[in-house]
Amino acid sequence: MTAINPVTDLSMDGDIAVITLNSPPVNALSANVREGLFEGFKAATADPAVKAIVLICEGRTFIAGADITEFGGASRGPSLFDVQGMMENAPKPVIAAIHGTALGGGLEVALVAHYRIAVPSARLGLPEVNLGLLPGAGGTQRLPRVAGPEKALEMMTSGRHAPASEALAMGLVDELAEEGKLREAAVAFARRCVTENRPLVKVRDNNTKVEAARGKPEIFEAFRKANARKFRGFLAPEYNIRCIEAAVNLPFDEGLAVERKLFGELVTGSQSAAQRYSFFAERQAQKVPDVPDDTPLIPVKSVGIIGAGTMGGGIAMNFANVGIAVTLIEVQKEALERGLKVIRSNYERTASRGGITAAQVEERMALITGSLDMNALATVDLVIEAVFERMDVKKEIFTKLDAICKPGAILATNTSGLNIDEIASVTKRPEAVIGLHFFSPANVMKLLEIVRADHTSKSVIATSMKLAKQIGKIAALVGVCPGFVGNRILGQRQREAQKLVMEGAMPWDVDRVLYDFGFPMGPFAMSDLAGLDIGWVKERSQGESIRDVLCEMDRRGQKTGAGYYDYDENRNAKPSPVTEKIINDFIVKTGSNPRTVSDEEILERCIYPMINEGVKILEEGKAIRSSDVDVVWQNGYGWPVYRGGPMWYGDQIGAAKVLEKMKEFQAKMGDDFKPAPLLEKLVAEGKKFSDL
Ligand code: 3HC
């Protein structure tokens, strides 16, 4: 074996050269890896004893893409294009042997091999779109040539990782190897290429599939139309589509030039910067400074959930999806049966769309056992309480859990803002108590706010973080304070939205500004969707707020056909003259004068207090780092990914400007806008939010 460089080896298996990359964690195409590939292929190509070349990787995966940390820096060593040229033009067969994931630049490297072989567990994709990018090393021109433009559109704009079986079916992979025997299989394949004198297939020359789509612009128009809502606000999906159009309509090298130009625009733009930041923010959020990687974990093989409502049922599905047994507790038999029925129908809906098989529905349902007796939780490893938000009820439940659950079990609450220290105080094991705040619908929403109370043990924290990843959630660790990180910041926006309406803006004005900013919907549309009567008590309602009046009129949101908006039979919203009159009457009643509120003011008043609250949260140590605040807001509250999150966005505006505006609003409208002391300090020291 010859070491080409610290991350690349070249060895011989008879007359087959094997180039092995080993650059943990994911063999990303750093300068070192590119150099190793370039020099390795150069040496193997020049050696007459070598008849074919296999590229394989050590560790958990094949090349998972370009090294994202290198973007924006000076380029060093051979470029990816140099490497690809060396491989594609090699005068002997080149075989890429794939395990783990071949993603982005990694798949683009595999696509210049003459053949690809993969183990069944491998997955392949071009996920650049999720970083606000497009494949910049020929992937936009080669994938459509292999898989056809329709498939390429779907894969490149979703960033989906296709399983090896699918890759085989679409011709992206030539053969599957037995799991664990990739190297032997790849060498044998290479030997067959030599003995059978197989052609050196260059994907770039294969025009059949792209030519078939030439002169059919409707393919692209239909795709754009079908996905308009999903792509709204994002640049990258449209740029990916344009590259595939170029693949269809232009010769390879001209298509490549389009790719280069559009890649250059995206990689230097603000959206990709925000999306790359988010990629690392999510991973950073998993790291807790005082909870080391080797903290002992508590094995979680069974989970108990108290409450079979929408929340409890959704939480249960997360665990059943990954094969963890769930005991679902309810007080009333009917409620339990209803809860189980909802879970089943959710699974059946997924199955009807092809997401899972009918057998999987049954497997998952079989993992969920209903019970009316809390004693059924005696043996579970983790309990999640998901009943309604009343401290007395939660305390009663935790007192019982303390008596019932086995020593070492984790006792979690799904509260969205109550004091978890107070809940923990009724137990004799506060170290076992933690907040696991799921977002509704819990089987869909990505965020898990993990709330660390005063006495929560490190093992309980480490286990919760690990479990979050296992069930496909993005976790952020936060501290106990009213509303935690997410709802506490939301409170700022909701308050200003309500105030703006009392000053003369209409709900649909506020909603439009926030929708245009990139949120999936504004606060009033959101209230209509959730139901205006959440927390509203008819007997106590005295028409003291706009919401009270709306509920009293039975305008309780979408479910009653009217709320802030009027809805037609398809639930399309229209501004409501009724709501407008209620608002105007209210304004008159309070003796204030309605005024014209600009869109700019709406945006600044909704967003800047959120940023300020984020700073306060950091000041109080309730979030570990500013990017954790962004992770919460992106994944739990629909903050547009291409704007990074409130703290990232704050840095784009500049802390000084945020402070100046907060002070201006404070002078006019009072202490709702009082700047956090840390914001003042930050500006005085010329620092950024990301420094927090
Ligand atoms: N560049 C640099 N670092 C990367 C990386 C990349 N492409 N991909 C992953 N990493 C790092 C992560 O930051 C993390 O670092 P940390 O341990 O210090 O936090 C570590 O590798 C492990 O990553 P994960 O925690 O995500 O590990 P998983 O096993 O859960 O997932 C993965 C592995 C599926 C490969 C996932 O990391 C992933 O999706 N990576 C990004 C893939 C991607 O987007 N590739 C395209 C890059 S852009 C490109 O190629 C442009 C080209 O067209 C020119």
Helix and strand topology:
Elements: E1 2-5, E2 8-13, E3 16-21, H1 31-46, E4 52-57, H2 80-88, E5 94-98, E6 101-103, H3 105-110, E7 115-118, E8 123-125, H4 139-147, H5 149-158, E9 162-163, H6 164-170, E10 175-176, H7 182-195, H8 208-213, H9 218-226, H10 228-231, H11 236-249, H12 252-267, H13 270-284, E11 302-306, H14 310-321, E12 325-329, H15 333-352, H16 358-366, E13 368-371, E14 382-385, H17 391-404, E15 410-413, H18 420-424, E16 433-438, E17 447-452, H19 458-470, E18 474-479, H20 486-503, H21 507-517, H22 523-530, H23 546-552, E19 565-567, E20 573-575, H24 577-589, H25 599-619, H26 626-637, H27 646-653, H28 655-669, H29 677-684
Parallel strand pairs: 3-4, 4-5, 5-7, 6-8, 7-10, 11-12, 11-14, 12-13, 14-15, 15-16, 17-18
Antiparallel strand pairs: 1-2, 2-3, 8-9, 16-17, 19-20
Helix pairs in contact: 1-2, 4-5, 4-11, 5-11, 11-12, 13-26, 14-15, 15-16, 20-25, 21-25, 25-28, 27-28
The structure holds 3-hydroxybutanoyl-coenzyme A.
Features:
692 residues; alpha/beta; eight-stranded mixed sheet; 29 helices; 20 strands; 48% helix; binds 3-hydroxybutanoyl-coenzyme A
- Count all strands and give the number: 20
Give the termini distance in whole angstroms.
48 Å
Please give the largest β-sheet: 8 strands, mixed
- Decide which structural class fits the backbone: alpha/beta
Low-pLDDT parts are none
Which hetero compounds are present in the coordinates?
3-hydroxybutanoyl-coenzyme A
Give the overall silhouette: globular
Strand content: 5-15%
Rounded mean pLDDT is 96
